[in-house]
Design a protein that fits this description.
168 residues; mainly alpha; 62% helix
């Protein structure tokens, strides 16, 4: 008759070396995909704690269900597209008036007028005119492009509406 102790010995076989847990590294770098971002040391510790506490499957399932992370800051400054479009229209209008009056540099004259409108009362806040003119030119040219795109889109939309009226 075989004792229980000897029976257990016969049924139990040692695991192959690859499956032994005490010889494996805790986190194997070869399993991680190269397209994933590298985690910082503190993030690795937090993740290891979660995996120990809840298990791999639960953490992976929670990560899939988690909502996308919100940025730390808001979406950023609001677009100044309408301000630039208004500025481009205003400067172009004033430049045309100066051209009608016979000015040899209508845009420069319009920029000077706009500068005087902005800083006529506040002597302390007055900017260097060269810096102001450089920024104004950049904003005016961007605003002109945006205004042209806006008018092109508006014409396309009106043509689309006319085509729908003809088809209806």
């Amino acid at each position: 008759m075989i004792s229980q102790r000897s029976a257990k010995r016969r049924l139990w076989k040692p695991l192959p070396r690859a499956f032994r847990t005490h010889n494996r590294r805790k986190y194997d770098d070869s399993e991680m995909s190269s397209d994933l971002p590298k985690l910082s040391e503190s993030d690795q510790k937090k993740l290891a704690r979660l995996v120990r506490k809840y298990g791999c499957e639960a953490v992976a399932a929670a990560a899939k269900k988690a909502p996308p992370a919100k940025p730390a800051r808001g979406p950023g400054r609001p677009s100044r597209i309408f301000e630039r479009m208004w500025l481009a229209g205003l400067i172009d209008e004033w430049a045309e008036e100066n051209r009608q009056a016979g000015s040899r540099q209508p845009y420069k004259q319009a920029e000077i007028e706009y500068y005087d409108c902005c800083y006529s009362r506040d002597e302390q806040k007055r900017l260097d005119f060269q810096k102001f003119q450089k920024k104004l030119k950049k904003d005016r040219l961007q605003g002109r492009q945006e205004l042209q795109r806006y008018h092109a889109n508006l014409q396309r939309w009106e043509a689309h509406l006319r085509a729908q009226k003809k088809g209806a």
